[in-house]
Amino acid sequence: xxxxxxxxxxxxxxxxxxxxxxxxxxxxxxxxxxxxxxxxxxxxxxxxxxxxxxxxxxxxxxxxxxxxxxxxxxxxxxxxxxxxxxxxxxxxxxxxxxxxxxxxxxxxxxxxxxxxxxxxxxxxxxxxxxxxxxxxxxxxxxxxxxxxxxxxxxxxxxxxxxxxxxxxxxxxxxxxxxxxxxxxxxxxxxxxxxxxxxxxxxxxxxxxxxxxxxxxxxxxxxxxxxxxxxxxxxxxxxxxxxxxxxxxxxxxxx
Length: 254
Description:
elongated; alpha+beta; Arc Repressor Mutant, subunit A; Beta-Lactamase; two-stranded antiparallel ribbon; 19% strand
C-alpha cells in the first residue's frame, strides 16, 4: 500500500529511503582507494554495483558538499570537503585513546606484555606499554629508546619505512615479524605495523616476553590475534585495514 500523501499532494518520504541514499553515497566515496587519483563514472559503477544514473544523482549532492570534485575530462576525484573532515578527525583523535584499549585486550588475551614503538631517527622509542601480569617478564618502560635494526618492533618499523632486502621484503608481504633472541638472547617477540591516514606507518605493535615462556609455538599462535589488533587500531586511525585483515585471515586456525 502506498504511504499517505501530505496536504497538497506531496508524498511523505520514507526515512528508510534517506538511509539507503546515504549508504549509497558512502559506497561511492568508498569506491576510491589510496591508489586512485580519479575514477570514471563507469569505474565507480563497476566497483559499487550501482546504476550510473543513481551515481550521477548522488554525485550531485557530493559535489555540492565538496566531498567529490568533477574534473574537466568528466572523471571524479575525492574533494576538499573530505580532507577537511579528515583533518577534523585527526585533531579529535588522541593516540592513547585508540591504542591502549587495543593493547590491553591483546595483553589480556596473551597474558604477555604489549608495547607500541615509534621510529625516532635511527632509533625507536617505546611510546606505550601494558605489562604482563607474570612475575617474570620482559621489561621495557615507556620512553625507553632501543635500536632500530634489531628486535621485531625495529624490523617492522624499518620494513614499512622502505628498507630494502630481507627480511624486510618478507615482512612487507606477511605484515609481521617474529624475533627469537634477535635483540636479547633471553627474550622473544612478534610485531605488526599500525597505519594511519595516507597509509604511512604510525608504529609497531609488539607482543614480547621471556623465551622461557614465549617460544616459537606460542608466537605462532599469536600471529592472528596480533594482526587483528593491528587492523583494529589502523581502522580507528582512519586507514584501510584490509591488508592486515587479509594477512590475519591467511593464518590457518589450528
